[in-house]
Write the structure tokens for this entry.
Amino acid sequence: MLKVRHKNKYLFDLKKGIRRILYSHEPVLKGYLKAKEIFIKRNSLPYDKDALFEKIFIETVSQCNNDCGFCPVPSKGEGSPEGRFMTEGLFAKIMNELAGLSFKGSVAFYCNNEPLMDRRLPFWVKEAREKLHNNFFYLYTNGTLISLEGANQLFETGLNRIIIDNYDDEHRLIPPVQDLMDHAASLKGEVILDYRHKNDYLGNRAGQNPNPGVVLKEPLRLRCVRPSRELVVGYDGTVPLCCADGLWKVRMGNVQETGLKDIWFSGHFKDVRRILWEADRSVTEICRVCDAVNLSCPKGARI
Ligand code: SF4
């Protein structure tokens, strides 16, 4: 099954232009985000301090091979490529713990990385599927390393969905994605193709966007539910505050040292979640400057 989003270049450019205006003027941005928050509040699930995360992001490789203007991660990818891959032991530990928790949520095999840089990915998906039979498995990729064979291998081992963010400022498909589209009828699972631009503006990403628009002078008074819904695990077991924290500036624990459940229900994590739910973003250095607001899991959403 194939879905295509944002194919119309003119509509895309229009939306991109509007986003740029919104994110360039602080008063306009605050009004826009406030309106968005009202909508989100109406559609959000209620706060439950004892609830487990609904989604886990796992970076089996914590690197990216792209250079989008809005993303801080290429700088995180510096250093030895060999050193930024998750070990089999750590992955097995995470899966065993999720199974032990009877985790029902979705598993995202990506976060601030390019997951297809890890050639072991079908093996990870298979191993995860053996432990988590009914969970929803998916990933986002920039498509630079995708192929029909690779995509189908992932579907056959248990992945439910692949979302391709096709980055090209001229709004064309990059060659590997074009090739996949030419053979879309042979896909064995769900693919969503999203046209994206490297020079787009998608918020300041917890203040880590290398090309920030507005630099907030004071924290927004807006609820953030992201740390109440999701858990992120990096290649070395690092658990950053949220998926917007691409540079892992605020660390909540490490899965190599502590169990997922203990990290999630630690006093510190619980305090941060509650304070952010109460719309106080002064709680961490990155929340203080973060302009993210579209962070809720609306009722019924799976990813
Ligand atoms: S306010 Fe921003 S940095 Fe803080 S938890 Fe929410 S998304 Fe992450």
